[in-house]
Design a protein that fits this description.
By secondary structure, this protein is of the alpha/beta class. The chain has 2 domains: 1-43, no CATH class; 51-200 and 249-434, 3-Layer(aba) Sandwich (Alkaline Phosphatase, subunit A), CATH 3.40.720. The chain contains 14 helices and 17 strands. It has helices spanning 17-23, 33-42, 75-78, 98-101, 124-128, 143-151, 171-174, 206-223, 231-246, 250-255, 262-268, 285-296, 314-339, 405-415, and strands spanning 51-57, 83-85, 92-94, 107-114, 161-164, 271-275, 281-283, 300-305, 346-351, 355-356, 368-369, 373-379, 390-391, 398-400, 403-404, 424-426, 432-434. Strand 13 (390-391) and strand 14 form a beta hairpin. 44% of the residues are buried. It comes from Maioricimonas rarisocia. This is DUF1501 domain-containing protein.
């Protein structure tokens, strides 16, 4: 008998949805499993939890060399890449992104992203939609931490917020997003290779683990009254999460991409697990791991990829290292989400902290350009297959539909079922703070 575990939603005839799923194709009062699923789909219902996968492109990629090529500009601006058609008529992107080109009907290039105040390298604005300046005490929380606080875990054994990046030479390049004033209990869970063995009991049975948990609880009570910062409470939450992880294989299994069929692993590729300079790895298995994590119950997964800060040899660096691997990993993720029926429930966002200069410098590179940048959204039930925004002939200024980082973050929150106009979080002084500032709302073209 097929049994699918899930919430026991009671139906109008007294049966629970779990009862029906256990019976499967055998009719229950004329209702079969396929019929139940079709009925739920017709009513617009989904029992799946929503999730976001954000790919932070460390160091800021050049928008005019990916999704916004300027073929009518002078040679010192347009560069050496050429556009190719996509599977959506009228949309062209870089020749070194063939995988995304064949999946453009599932994507939305953003060509007019702005909001970085000074062109300083920091992942902060990608994770919060806000500039790093003028923060409240404790700092603004990232989207992963906010979702952790607001929605919590879908499964006790899987953290709601997971960050796939090792430490990097430039610390913001390795950041998964900070918890800010929400505290350490809502920080990203950051698995790394050598520490993965510590996520299993390693010979300790559950009874012994329970005894240790009781001992830790007793010690914590002794110190409770002397802690005024909230850190101890946060550590209690972390300890509880650690015990949940240790007593379940769910997270460890999600991180183990070797469980995937070989053809799936080949589609994603391996990339390079070593950090690129002072940036992040170009680890393509992280794209697959991100998909496995959201399937296991993670709500927000951040993935840090490469180092796109090409002040010199911009075209060689993009063509020979970054664009082909990024294209392979991201297109495989988008296709996989669609094939596995997750495309409406998981929103994918890939971007960097600003754009690059229109004029190519003397070292064949592009420098920082905070006036406009780009990005890509995919899946999430969005109205895909369109481009939003435009720049002028040189790619230097926004010509149509400015898109602030905060609007994109508002869209991601919306897709997670969170109303940015109504939802607030208390800061360290107890004041309610909105998730995005300046009244930014979800992109109306998409939702």
């Amino acid at each position: 008998m097929l049994a699918i575990r899930g919430r026991a939603t009671r139906l109008c005839d007294g049966w629970t949805r779990r009862d029906v799923l256990k019976i499967g194709a055998i009719g229950v009062g004329g209702l079969t499993l396929p019929g139940l699923l079709r009925a739920e789909q017709a009513q617009g219902k989904s029992n799946r939890d929503k999730a976001v996968i954000m790919i932070y492109m460390c160091g800021a990629p050049s928008h005019q060399d990916m999704y916004d090529l300027k073929m009518d500009a002078p040679a010192e601006i347009r560069g050496e890449f050429r556009p190719i058609p996509t599977n959506v008529s009228g949309i062209e992107i870089c020749e070194h992104l063939p995988g995304l080109a064949r999946n453009m009907d599932k994507c939305v290039p953003l060509r007019s992203v702005y909001g970085s105040p000074n062109g300083a390298h920091d992942s902060f604005i990608c994770y919060t939609g806000r500039p790093v300046q003028n923060q409240p005490a404790g700092g603004w929380p990232s989207i992963g931490s906010a979702v952790s606080r607001l929605q919590g875990p879908t499964n006790p054994a899987v953290p709601p917020f997971v960050g796939l990046s090792p430490d990097t030479g430039h610390p913001p390049y390795g950041s998964p997003g900070h918890p800010g004033f929400l505290g350490v209990s809502h920080a990203a869970f950051r698995p790394s290779g050598p520490s993965r063995k510590d996520m299993v009991l390693n010979g300790i049975d559950a009874d012994r683990l329970g005894d240790r948990k009781q001992l830790l609880t007793a010690f914590d009570r002794l110190r409770r009254d002397v802690d005024a910062s909230g850190t101890l409470e946060g550590m209690d939450s972390i300890t509880r999460q650690a015990f949940d992880i240790l007593t379940s294989s769910r997270l460890v299994d999600a991180l183990d991409v070797s469980q995937e069929p070989e053809e799936v692993r080949e589609r994603y590729g391996k990339g390079d697990p070593k950090n690129y300079g002072d940036g992040a790895p170009r680890n393509l298995e992280h794209f697959l791991m991100a998909r496995r994590l959201v399937e296991a119950g993670a709500r927000v997964v951040t993935l840090n990829f490469g180092r796109w800060d090409f002040h010199s040899n911009n075209f060689g660096g993009l063509k020979n290292t970054h664009l082909p691997q990024f294209d392979q990993g991201l297109s495989a993720l988008i296709e996989d989400l669609h094939e596995r029926g997750l495309a409406d429930d998981v929103t994918v966002c890939a971007w960097g902290e600003f754009g690059r200069t229109p004029r190519i410098n003397a070292n064949a590179g592009r420098d920082h350009w905070p006036r406009v940048g780009g990005g890509l959204l995919a899946c999430g039930g969005l109205r895909t297959g369109q481009v939003i925004g435009a720049t002028d002939r040189l790619g230097s200024d926004i010509a149509d539909r400015p898109i602030h980082f905060g609007e994109v973050l508002a869209t991601l929150y919306h897709n997670l079922g969170i109303d940015v106009e109504q939802t607030t979080l208390p800061d360290l002084a107890g004041r309610p703070q909105y998730l995005v500032n300046d009244g930014y709302r979800p992109l109306e073209e998409l939702v």
